Amino acid sequence: MTIHWAHTNSENAADALTAVEQALAGATAPPTEPGAVDPQLLALVRDDPYLAESLRALHAGWTVDPHAIVVSNRPGLSWAINRFQRLVRRATWWFALPQWLQISAFNGAVVRTSASLLKEQRRLEQRMDDVAGGHVLLRTALLEQEILSLRAEVARLRERIAALEGNRI
Fold first, then answer.
1. Nearest by Cα to 111 from 17, 6, 36, 21
2. Burial of 23 (0-12, 13-18, 19+ CB in 10 A)
3. Given this model, what pLDDT does residue 31 score?
4. Residue 76, by phi and psi: left (phi above 0), alpha (psi -120 to 50) or beta?
């Protein structure tokens, strides 16, 4: 069950219906759980166990359970405390549900954005390795060839200068 709030400053029924239509049109569906961590994503962070554990924690606990309570373990009173918490939670769920849905939507977006940013970072790192590895090595080889050819040309010019100076004397 989802509650949608609609507000209008008018007492006209048509304005109220328009406000309800706008509220329903702008409403977003409750977020869906992204599920378990993508194995490819975990493969990206295999070098960093802390990051892998953080990703698992993000994916496991991003939703806010509106019916969760802090379970009491006090001897003799725990059943009453737990029952009272459930009663209060059921009595006030309608008040806190919009905030819980908003928090869950935000947490889900953070989880998906974190995964996307991590994938993009790893893709850019791979691209940098490809560019740096391939182009730098190729460019270095070309420069070394050019240096060798220029050294050979300088040696030939020195020999020619020596030959010309030898003919002059």
1. 36
2. middle
3. 42
4. left
**What burial class does residue 2 get, using C-beta atoms within 10 Å of its C-beta: 0-12 exposed, 13-18 middle, 19+ buried?**
exposed
- For 62-104, how does the pLDDT look when each residue is reduced to its tens digit (9 = 90+)? 777 777 778 888 888 888 988 998 898 888 888 888 888 888 8
Rg (CA), the chain: 35
- Interatomic CA distance for residues 144 and 108, integer angstroms: 53
Q: What's residue 27's pLDDT?
A: 52
Q: What's the pTM?
A: 0.48
Amino acid symbol at 27:
A
For residue 9, count other CB atoms closer than 10 A to its CB.
Answer: 7
Residue with tokens 């509650």: 3
Domain residue spans in the chain? 1-30, 34-168
